[in-house]
Design goal:
Helix content is 44%, strand content 12%. The chain is of the alpha+beta class and 851 residues long. It folds into five domains: 19-122, 3-Layer(aba) Sandwich (Rossmann fold), CATH 3.40.50.300; 130-234, Double Stranded RNA Binding Domain (2-Layer Sandwich), CATH 3.30.160.20; 354-483 and 490-548, Orthogonal Bundle (Ribonuclease iii, N-terminal Endonuclease Domain, Chain A), CATH 1.10.1520.10; 561-775, Ribonuclease iii, N-terminal Endonuclease Domain, Chain A, CATH 1.10.1520.10; 777-851, Double Stranded RNA Binding Domain, CATH 3.30.160. Strand 5 (166-174) and strand 6 (177-185) form a beta hairpin.
């Protein structure tokens, strides 16, 4: 471990160690993979090194401070500090005396701490109590620090961020006494106005000063609405007390499975046929496609009728099936029947055919009448123009109609998420992302939407029952016949069906009148809540967010190349700065981190991809295909990889001395290097820097294969992405930039251009054009296994270098179908094993099925 110059433009010599490996060496030492470090004085201070059992110093400490720092490294039980010195040196006695002096000072400090603790308890302040009369909750001075630490811990679950509050103590002169005041600094995810609080009194004890500052900080959080009436951090239950957790599905009733699957069936006497012709005598058995029972015993010298079978599913409206190349039978007669056993109907065939269609015709009249009534009553204010779209939106999949709500619900779900996200971001400018996310969930959850459907009476307009001709009767008959005692006219609908229809109608409104009409539809089902949310147009929300961003902030020089990389120039540079600031970068002068912009950008990204998938019409994609595409394009793996690949060429000048001689003047050598998007992120976490370094090593190893798969492969590289294992902060950068561009420009087109430059939309176009296989191996294996259970058994081993290695066996039923080894991570092992299992099962089925 060698400390070297940190000037990036100075070319390092061959004796200098690579600084990007320093953190990796330290991590190996912390975990025990490396048990010996040889270092310069770089390890004396400022670097987190665990306690060592032996510290050897080859050079004499220059002063007491250095001696104490080195002695502090040997703080394990029975640890030793070895000082090498000259044989005749008199410094040994000096250092022994200094160590004794250090121990004396330490003992004095311990006694001083006891005195301070006694002083803390001796202060009897007349300090006010924060109380809530409604609940009886109370906050005292002694409770403040623990409450504040608990609040900070609930702000977010992001990694690489220290969520503990920091305290700064300063001395003040009050009269003739020197007292203490404290300032507490809270995490950067909170608004700037709530991030600092000062004690209102001066104290003799530092601990009491900290408690005072913590109390004032917690009081400010309560006044800002971030703490509930019980003086506890807000939870999802506080945001939506009326949201009820209910099963999404209706309980399965096996006795009802036959309903809707029964078709018109007659016995052999009354089976209808088409007349094809008359035969003078009984035809040979070889000329009849399907003979009836006792055909051989039937008379020979009597006329026979050549007949065609009446289709079983006559009377339904279905999309015509694509033509098939079926082998035409060489037998000329589908069926035959003796003329003496045949009877002719008195009603012409055309009326019989029309009569069979009457149920379907009435059924479709009913669909459109229901939709028309819905449009003229509950949805009247929306002024929707297409009744066909409304019919599509109210037909559940269980109705088995030619159309259902699945496609349009896919869009409506994304529109709802976007409108809710933007509105609550604008309405709660002081709320951190950790509170905005559960608040959003209270609006978009199935429970909330199903309650909205019931409250507006939408549930009575939803079509769920399949048309069946078995025992069919006109709909009005049900109104005339009394309901048998013990039965109910009430039907049971799942919360998901109710919620899906609401989202489908939001999608219909968007398709009919864009986002303004979609927002109007949302407000119809989810009325504004004065104390929670008043629905505003997205343009108004964007203006609020834009005006909230600081003005006239200069762009740091380190971020100046970023605008060229993005292809967009920000009007407010503060938005770009915020979008590139990690939550760990909590330093003075920082206004905000990217958490809120990432929350906003996630909804915008989802909406742009969903719209692009929905608009594809050659051919129109089915609902399951659209879901697969969104899963493949909006996930942390591909976004993280694209953030690593998206780079900007930068120039730099290295100082070079040709022969290494000090006599020759150095020269500046110009060169170019690629600066990736992720490197612009501002952070102050050692663990995050280490994770970046590890990920870059994996990226360098895998990028060639991933790029080949994305550009010319036939399958989505799920396994390679699982090995890359890009942490969430990589994709967070991209989503926060999308949010920042939208707030700054107000243009979805600018955001879409960002997706195109990053490579998301071009890859979507390739997937659609070349029919890329994007189903995840684990999901595909589940489908191939059908009703058999799939089980993954992961085992852990250790490599020669000390890193863990994972192996995985996959069982389908009781049979082991795959056994893989050599994975770096558990999820990678499962994905690899699933991929092998899928290939094996497909190969087995190909052998079993005839070509």
């Amino acid at each position: 471990m060698v400390g070297t110059s940190s000037i990036p433009s100075v070319k390092q010599g061959f004796l200098d160690l690579e600084q990007d490996k320093l953190q990796l060496h330290l991590q190996n030492f912390r975990t025990g993979k490396t048990n010996l470090l040889v270092a310069t004085s770089v390890l004396e201070e400022g670097i987190d090194v665990p306690a060592c059992n032996l510290v050897i110093c080859f050079d004499k400490p220059t002063n007491l401070k250095v001696f104490i720092q080195r002695r502090g490294r040997a703080r394990m039980k029975s640890s030793r500090l070895v000082l090498l010195h000259e044989a005749q040196s008199a410094s040994l006695t000096e250092w022994e005396e200094r160590e004794k002096e250090m121990k004396r000072r330490y003992e004095d400090e311990m006694r001083e701490l006891v005195q301070i603790e006694e002083l803390e308890h001796s202060e009897s302040p007349n300090y006010p109590i924060l109380s809530v009369e409604e609940t009886g909750a109370r906050l005292t001075l002694d409770d403040a620090r623990s409450h504040l630490e608990h609040f900070c811990a609930t702000l977010s679950s992001r990694k690489y961020v220290d969520w503990n509050p920091d305290y700064i103590t300063e001395k003040v002169i009050v009269g003739s006494a020197t007292l203490l005041r404290a300032t507490v600094i809270l995490p950067i995810s909170l608004p700037e106005g709530l991030r600092r609080a000062q004690s209102i009194q001066a104290w003799q004890s530092e601990q009491n000063a900290w408690k005072d500052a913590a109390f004032q900080a917690y009081k400010a959080l309560f006044n800002a609405g971030l703490v509930n009436k019980h003086l506890l951090p807000l939870k999802e239950s506080d945001l939506a007390k009326d949201v009820e957790a209910r099963p999404a599905k209706v309980p399965f009733d096996p006795e009802r499975m036959s309903e809707g699957l029964e078709y018109l069936i007659r016995d052999v006497v009354n089976t209808p046929y088409f007349y094809r012709g008359i035969l003078p005598s009984k035809p040979p058995i070889e000329s009849v496609q399907q003979i009836y029972r006792n055909f051989e015993e039937s008379p020979e010298d009597t006329p026979y009728l050549s007949l065609g079978r009446w289709p079983k599913k006559t009377g339904f409206f279905h999309r015509p099936l694509p033509p098939t190349e079926s082998v035409k039978s060489t037998r000329p007669h589908p069926r035959v029947l003796p003329a003496v056993d045949a009877r002719a109907d008195t009603v012409p065939l055309v009326y019989a055919q029309f009569g069979l269609l009457i149920p379907s015709i009435i059924h479709y009249f009913e669909l459109y009448l229901v939709a028309a009534e819905l449009m003229s009553t509950r949805l009247k204010s929306l002024e929707l123009s297409s009744i066909d779209s409304v019919v599509e939106a109210i037909c559940a999949t269980s109705a088995r109609e030619p159309v259902n709500y699945e496609r349009i619900e896919f869009v409506g779900d994304s529109i709802l998420k976007l409108c809710v996200t933007v509105n609550i971001s604008a309405a709660r400018l002081d709320w951190p992302e950790g509170l905005l996310s559960p608040l959003k969930d209270t609006f978009v959850s199935n429970s909330s939407l199903s309650k909205a459907a019931e409250a507006t009476g939408l549930d009575q307009f939803i079509i769920t029952r399949q048309l069946t001709l078995n025992k069919w009767r006109p709909p009005y008959v049900d109104d005339l016949v009394a309901v048998p005692q013990g039965l109910s006219n009430t039907r049971r609908l799942s919360t998901k069906t109710l919620a899906d229809v609401v989202e489908a109608l939001i999608g219909v409104s968007w398709d009919d009148g864009g986002l303004p009409k979609a927002l109007k539809c949302i407000s119809l089902f989810l009325p504004p809540k004065p104390k929670m949310l008043n629905w505003m147009p997205l343009e108004t929300c964007r203006e609020i967010l834009y005006n909230h961003a600081p003005d006239n902030m200069a762009l740091p020089s380190t971020l100046e190349p970023l605008e060229k990389l993005l292809g967009y120039t920000f009007q407010k540079k503060s938005l770009l700065v915020e979008a590139m600031t990690h939550a760990s970068y909590n330093v003075p002068g920082i206004k905000a981190c990217f958490d809120r912009l990432e929350f906003l950008g996630d909804a915008i990204l989802d909406n742009l991809v969903v719209k692009a998938v929905f608009d594809h019409d050659k051919p129109k994609l089915e609902n399951f295909q659209m879901h697969l595409l969104r899963t493949a394009l909006v996930n942390g793996d591909i976004l993280g990889f694209l953030v690593m690949e998206w780079s900007h060429k930068q120039q730099r000048f290295d100082v070079d001395i040709a022969d290494g001689s000090e006599q020759q003047a150095p020269t500046l050598v110009e060169s170019e290097f690629d600066q990736p998007l992720w490197s612009f992120m501002r952070f102050s976490s050692t663990e995050l820097a280490l994770e970046q370094e590890k990920t870059m090593r994996r990226h360098a190893e895998l990028r060639g294969r991933i790029i080949a798969a994305l550009r010319s492969g036939t399958h989505y590289p799920w396994t390679l992405f699982a090995r890359l294992r890009a942490q969430k902060f990589f994709s967070d950068i991209f989503e926060s930039l999308i949010g920042a561009v939208w707030v700054d420009s107000g243009s979805m087109d600018q955001c879409a251009e960002l997706l195109r430059r990053a490579g998301i939309l071009p890859y979507l176009e390739r997937v659609l054009r070349d029919d890329i296989h994007i189903l995840h191996p684990k999901e595909e294996l589940g489908r191939l296994a059908d009703r058999e259970t799939v089980k993954y058994v992961v085992e852990t081993a250790q490599r020669d270098d000390g890193d863990p290695e994972f192996a995985c066996k996959v069982y389908v039923g009781d049979r082991c179908v795959a056994d893989v080894q050599g994975a770096y991570y558990k999820e990678e092992a499962r994905t690899m094993a699933a991929e092998v299992a899928v290939h094996k099962i497909k190969a087995e089925k190909a052998v079993q099925e005839p070509s």
